[in-house]
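User: Show me a protein chain along with its predicted structure.
Assistant: Here is one chain, sequence first, then structure tokens.
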Amino acid sequence: MSKKTVVLGVSGGIAVYKACDLARKLTRAGHKVNVIMTKEATKFVAPLTFAALTNNKVLVDLFAEEGGDISHIQVVQNADVFCIVPATANIVAKMACGIADDILSTCLLANVAPVLIAVATNTAMLQNPATQHNMETLKKRGAQFIVGECGVLACGANGEGRLAKTEDIFAKIQQMLGSISKKEEPMQMALDMAMPTAGKSLAKVEKSVGSATVYNQNYGAASYGKTVRFTQTQIDDQIEAYKKQISALQELQATSIAGLLDGKKDFSEKTILVTCGGTSEPIDSVRVITNHSSGKMGMALVKALLMRGAKVILIAGHISVDIPESENIEVVSATTTQAMFEATQSNLQKVDGCMMAAAPSDYKVQNQTD
């Protein structure tokens, strides 16, 4: 992927520190990041922090130009995406009205690149009719907004106005750039995790051919929680199944990665079901049988599908990763294997395809105690 240039505008708010994480993510993804800060933003985080994270000079003062070139104009002219993180109600108002009274608002007025605005402000300020009008005005001009979930704000209020998660902002920027870094590309991460798993499983089955190993697993719905002894034919079939799995993953790696890098939306008419995370089987009211699945691989698939334009039905067990915020994702909680099986079965008729990335528990208690 060719290097892209992202201009990161930082306005003054408590969420400025989160922009540091975004700058790091973008830099690690191979992008050139030019940071422009308002003077108010420097009261929260020093420009030196962003300079160290991006290896680029940070622009703060409109009249501190060196040499004959107007550096802030050059920065804007070279931008592929201009994102404002965090964007206060003040900077949103300036953009809507075309005001250019500091370096950030001046650069925004001179900008022709796509704009992403990550609003972070007090709930009352966000819901004020003036702010809503300004946001609608900017949307009509082509600016895109990303908003966070409701929650407790720095002022103590509980409601809208929190900055979106940096991973969601990062994903949105990648989508706008029409390319995805190989280093942090979700589908590649999922494949990298899935391929070794398939390889290990294949080795395990091949090793057990001569020893008639007894397995305890979910070998079909009717055998849930029972011990199953594989026949030689079943073992041979399992080996072939794993070989096909590896072959399919390799083919997916060759096709889907190229599609993601091209920013394609070839799943825009599709609904895909994804299972994700581990399940637990109660022993009693305190103890459970479970596993260490984090849901990371399944969530990587979800993010990749969303970027390809798909609608996703996520059957989620126990996970330790965040679920992407999107209107195109429906989440169904299923914390036991039976619940996951039933949720999957009940949604099969609604989808065009399935990606089974969950880690159901291998055992269940025959007689659960209270």
